[in-house]
Amino acid sequence: MKPLLDLIKYGQSYWLDNLTRAMLKNGALQKRVETQGLRGMTSNPAIFQKAISGSTDYDAQIAQLVQAQQPVLDIYEQLTVTDVRDACDILRPVYDASDGGDGFVSLEVSPYLAHDTEGTMHEARRLFQAVNRPNAFIKIPGTPAGVPAIEQMLYEGININITLLFSIQSYEAVAQAYIRALERRVAEGKPVRNVASVASFFLSRIDVLVDQLLGHRIQSDGPQGAGPRPQQLVGKVAVANAKLAYQSFQTIFGEARWQTLANKGARVQRPLWASTSTKDPLYSDVCYVEPLIGPHTVNTMPDETIDAFADHGVIVANSIEDGVEEAQQTLHDLTAVGVDLDFVTQQLMHEGVQKFIDPFDMLMRTLANKRLAILGERAGSQTMALGKLKSAVTSAYKAFDSRQGARRLWAHDALLWTADPASAESIRQRLGWLDSVETFRPRADDIVTFASDVRRAALRHVVLLGMGGSSLSPEVCRATFGSAPGWPELVMLDNTDPAAVREVETRLDLARTLFIVASKSGTTTETHSFYRYFHERLTQHGVPQVGEHFVAITDPGTPLAEEAQRQGFRRCFENPEDFGGRYSALSYFGLVPMALLGIDVATLLDRAHHMALGSGPFIPTEANVGASLGMLLGMAARQGRNKVTFVLSESVSTFGYWAEQLLAESTGKQGRGLVPVEGEPLGAPEVYGQDRVFVWIRTADQPEPDTETKLAALEAAGHPVVRIVLHDVLDLGAEFLRWELATAVAGAVLNLNPFDEPNVAESKQNTSDLLREWQQRGTFSEAQPVVAASGITVYCEPGQPWIPQPGQQQSLDTFLRAFVDLAAAPDYLALLSYFLRTEARHQALQALRLALRNRRRVATTLGYGPRYLHSTGQLHKGGPNTGVFILFTADAAADLPIPGQPYGFATLQQAQALGDFRSLNTKARRVIRVHLGSDIEGGLKRLAESLV
Length: 948
Prior knowledge:
alpha/beta; TIM Barrel; eight-stranded parallel β-barrel; 13% strand; elongated
């Protein structure tokens, strides 16, 4: 140990470039300090990545932090802060004995902050306070953005180790920053004696890159000129650069300006030689130690270099001053042979940041996986067999990480989706859902209290009047959970067919019914019509205090909010304005109806919180639950696999209703988009084209081996298969957030805005136009049918190529089959029905779509209008022109009036169907309207005979 112990005699401290919990616990660090002359140590993300992922020493603390629901980044910080604090305590005697001049331990800010001044300062303050030891150093890189942060932190009295210095100019910049910081303190009467800093000058990395560049220039058989030869400079540049940096140190800290500060008790900012392990095996293993010994210096060495120097290191007093002229000549000759040292050091700065980012990401991935392992089955699971997309998706993971995709998502960075300032501002106004768990966890008690009051009022039914995003998540929960014992039954109404309205009304005791009027805008036509109808019905039945039978869920200041106040509603829940409708499952729109079912919304939000932790901003994409799924979906669509086919276990069989809207309305625009396929029975590989991604969602208690066998066959055929296992149905809280995050990421991959719905308004406007036409004429104008038979009438836009030419008569069967045969991969067939859904009708349509899938080998979807207008309708008109649409209408058996309107529900429904038909035609979609007359069941049977 003598060479190590002798270093201090010549003004140099040696520090350990390593830190592990094992050396803290087994006495190894204590021994180095007490018997081997160690006077400090440094750490960085690479050191911690190796320590934490390569041992079980941290597992107990990790488990404790996971159980405390700490985010992965917080787990990392608490692990590292614990180690640094303990190391500071071991080195505290050195600090005290040197009167605060030595005995320091360094902790680095996130490498992602290397170019973020404000972020660096915020984290440096937080970490220094967390360690709470006077002999702690916070490491900040000496980037242009780092220099002002370094000055400010030193001014505030935070000890700073400036890292990643490669050039003399960068060194001089941070030395001046140190002096300015102390001068500011002196000017304000603040002490400077205990403000410490070192400037870490990197060595071996310089030689690695310079030697490579020199090697390219060596010409062993070339002409022997008088000038310098590249081979003469190999292995000399790093030490030469350091010697000249030391000359700058002496100049800067030898001036009168510094002496003024020294007289106030200031200590010099010591140069610290970093990256001192030898990378080239042909070099001496102490080549970055022996020539750089001198006063006021630090050499930070890894274990192997320390051992090598202890074994055979040679100390030459003040070796740092030897050969200064030779060092100057070396750098001059380097330029002469064509190597630009400024370029080298700039490149090394960029590489140095990345060399810390990579292990930092690896460690975040390790901690994310450890977290899942600790949670076990409570966390559920998500596995993805990427199939033929493996190369594209794994490459995309890295690209997304390089753009800091997950961090930007959680930071509400709208530029993740657009570079247009106006569009970015619009997106920023719709990102509140990212904070839904934090926003609504504190409100859960209030929601539950309200629901309990409703329960005590002995109300038997709660009817949700809504459309799309305001009703789909409650419908999923109603079907999944049902009503808890003693809680009211939840009834959904999102169909304007008068039969649907009548069917709901016949189930109710109006005097014991609560109606939820849910509309983000407060102006949704269907919701407003339902509200007016039932408000009048309650009034007609003489129900007292009619307003007490209504609850509003809407944005602040909407017409619905005003109506709620005017009519004395039982409650008006005003949702945050920055929640888009389809991203509102974990807001009042979803949680209030869920609570009225007796669902434990607090636990539901807790499960969502776990999903947020597993998809957090600092978890790399590959290990990030939400981001990895979104990356797969987005890249799959870019590779032509845009049919997201849901395979759902019985326990969560309706989840696709909500996910369908989320995916379709969010991504179906600009001629691109994901096509969700919900409710299509799973088939054999031969019935599918190469446009599918399969997503199996089940609860842990429903393994379904038959489904697994079928999916295994699809996986073997090269189809991507995602398997998601929920711990239990309360994991729907997590599932809502998982898919919101995945959809947002998929939108970024597809380069579109997943938070608007530019084509939804078209059908609404067409509906309004048609209703005005009806009011003027008492009827709707329709084109002549192209074919009619057996009570079925078929309409399509004139001039379409599949229409029989004049004089060419086709039977119903021939026409329908010809139209269906237009569908070929990558098309999809969409069945769109405007009538009351009954079990018999739904099964008939399901049988029809299955037969069509098997016949045409294309994806099929099934929607009910007008509900789908607020869901897949955006995809139909704004997404890829690959849909083949059959729109079904029928005669209403009887109408119901809409109070305040000259028309009833039957007229509204007909206008909606015709309006959407017009919109699809305007977008040049392949669409027909099949009118079934008054016999819907018979018409569906007849169609099956024609098409199967």
